[in-house]
Amino acid sequence: MFIQRRSPTRKLFPDTWDIVGGHLEPGESLEEALHREVVEETGWRVSIVLGTIGEHRYVGDDGLERLETDYLIRVDGDLARPRLEAGKHTGFRWITRDEIDVLDENNGVDDGLVRQIVEGGFALLRQIGL
């Protein structure tokens, strides 16, 4: 799974591991937002949506409640060299199921949300036989 580190200057969840994502723009569908955010945050293009990991409600450290829908996808592009969105992300890595504990450093900030989503992605991979 691909994870990226949020910049320490980010208002929400600064300097934590995260997954690619963002907010809907006016009039945009979830699928349109998914495709746009992947391009904006990595330079890659969505080649296929393998499935929906789930919906997650959370309250950010700004006090606002959010509803997030997470997808497992395949992308086209140079997987070794994502084009991280300037000012928003400072690093990235690919993790295996055995490396998921790296996400525990977020626990004091996101209550394990990113780990839960990534675990859901690995479970979906097993479910579809990948």
Report the uncertain regions: none
Number of strands: 5
Structural class: alpha+beta
Number of helices: 3
Which descriptor suits the 3D outline? globular
Q: What is the helix content?
A: 10-25%
Overall number of domains: 1
Q: Do you know the CATH architecture?
A: Alpha-Beta Complex
N- and C-termini, Cα separation: 13 Å
**Biggest β-sheet strands, sense, barrel:** 3 strands, antiparallel
By CATH, the topology is: Nucleoside Triphosphate Pyrophosphohydrolase
CATH superfamily: Nucleoside Triphosphate Pyrophosphohydrolase
The CATH first-level class comes to Alpha Beta
- Our Rg estimate from Cα atoms comes to 14 Å
Strand order of the largest sheet: 2-1-5
Characterization of this structure:
This protein is of the alpha+beta class. The chain has a single domain (2-127), classed as Nucleoside Triphosphate Pyrophosphohydrolase, CATH 3.90.79. Helices cover 25% and strands 31% of the residues. It has three helices and five strands, in the order ββαβββαα. It has helices at 30-42, 107-110, 113-127; strands at residues 2-6, 17-18, 45-59, 65-76, 89-94. The strands form two sheets. It has a three-stranded antiparallel beta sheet with strand order 2-1-5, with no helix packed on it. The longest helix is centred in the C-terminal third of the chain and has 15 residues, at 113-127. It is globular and about 35 Å long. The model has no long low-confidence stretch (mean pLDDT 95).
